[in-house]
Amino acid sequence: MKVLLTGGAGFIGSSVIRQALSAGDIKIVNVDTLTYAGNLDSLASIDANPNYAFEQVNICDGTAIAQVFAKHKPTVVMHLAAESHVDRSIDSPSDFIQTNIVGTYTLLEQSRIYWQSLAQKEQDAFRFHHISTDEVYGDLERADDFFTETTAYAPSSPYSASKASSDHLVRAWQRTYGLPTLITNCSNNYGPYHFPEKLIPHVILNALAGKPLPIYGDGSQIRDWLYVEDHAKALLKVLSAGKVGETYNIGGHNEQRNRDVVTTICDLLEELAPNKPAGVINYKDLITYVADRPGHDQRYAIDASKIQQELGWQPQETFESGIRKTVAWYLANQNWCERILTGEYRLERLGEVS
Asked: pLDDT grade, residue 350 (50/70/90)?
């Protein structure tokens, strides 16, 4: 199997690549334009792997994507490239429209043209796996409600609306052109190599620096947390065994209120990083409640029974085990974090740092 994987320098994409290559029987072509969230440091461990290739290409560039198909001749596509930070989508929605909608359209079209050029046997084996989010479903009102694969779409932010649009495009290309597609919608990911602007790494790094730990509103918003390595395993399972045209929800079975996530991190840091910054007595003293985000969804929770029953996947990490591993990783990899916080990881690729 040769996988053309978009967004492989990002958080989830890099986890999929590291895991796939550890199996030894998959080749990966990583297509990433390296925006601010694309970090090749996350792939340093596999950079020299003979089964790995990198192409710095924007998915909105149809000509360049066609050249990647012609050069590498992939057998499947995994589409993870996306703008994904809700706050950024509120401040600058145009980037999300361009990457998540136009980029997905461009990749679908080039995949269709390439797929139609293949011999019948290769056409039958080809897959276009689109990786999406549970945020397309909006939020849940009752405590006993869960998102299923048939839940109606009701996106709340420019980010989730752009991802909902991309999901619809994928289904249309399958229905209209017969392109063999798969869609997965996942809950909130966390774990090693997560970009520091997201909640969990942001809290860890701010706490270690003695900075405020901001929580939106009263922090009662609930999310289902999925350890990124569990997600990567699920994606590879869907790619190899999923049924064409189907959607699979991937959840962690770990619902947590935002404020409880922050206090759990503080408790772990008390244990694992007891030497606090000057002036800090308890990490929890840094917690600060700020004005809520516009259109903030209250609760997400995924029913992942379909992928468990049909493909045999279920998460291995509880939130307690996964968050401990995550905090420990950030404590052990502060150089990776520092290169992001200083911008050094981006300057090097521009040739501005030797």
From this structure: low
User: Cα–Cα distance between 122 and 127 in angstroms, integer?
Assistant: 10
Query: What 3-state DSSP class applies to 221?
Result: coil
Cross-strand partners of 222: 257, 299
| Contact predicate 224/255, CB 8 Å | yes
The pLDDT, as a whole number, for residue 24 is 76
CB count within 10 Å of CB 267 equals 15
DSSP 8-state secondary structure symbol assigned to residue 98 = I
pLDDT tens digits, one per residue of 87-124 = 889 999 999 999 999 999 999 999 999 999 999 999 99
What are 214-242's pLDDT values in tens digits?
A: 999 999 999 999 999 999 999 999 999 99
Q: What is the pTM of this model?
A: 0.94
**Domains of the chain by range and CATH?**
2-191+225-254+296-318 (3.40.50.720)
Phi first, then psi: give them for residue 115, nearest 5 degrees.
-60, -40
DSSP-based three-state secondary structure for 331: helix
Catalytic residues: 134-135, 159
Helices 334-341/199-208 angle, 10° precision: 100
User: CB-side exposure of 55: number of CA atoms within 13 Å?
Assistant: 21
Query: Could you tell me which of 112, 127, 136, 302 has the C-alpha nearest to residue 225?
Result: 302
Instruction: Name the 3-class secondary structure at 79.
Output: strand
- Secondary element (H or E) of residue 188: strand 188-190
H/E element, 231:
helix 228-241
Q: Between the CA of residue 8 and those of 82, 87, 195, 295, what are the distances in Å?
A: 11, 22, 13, 30
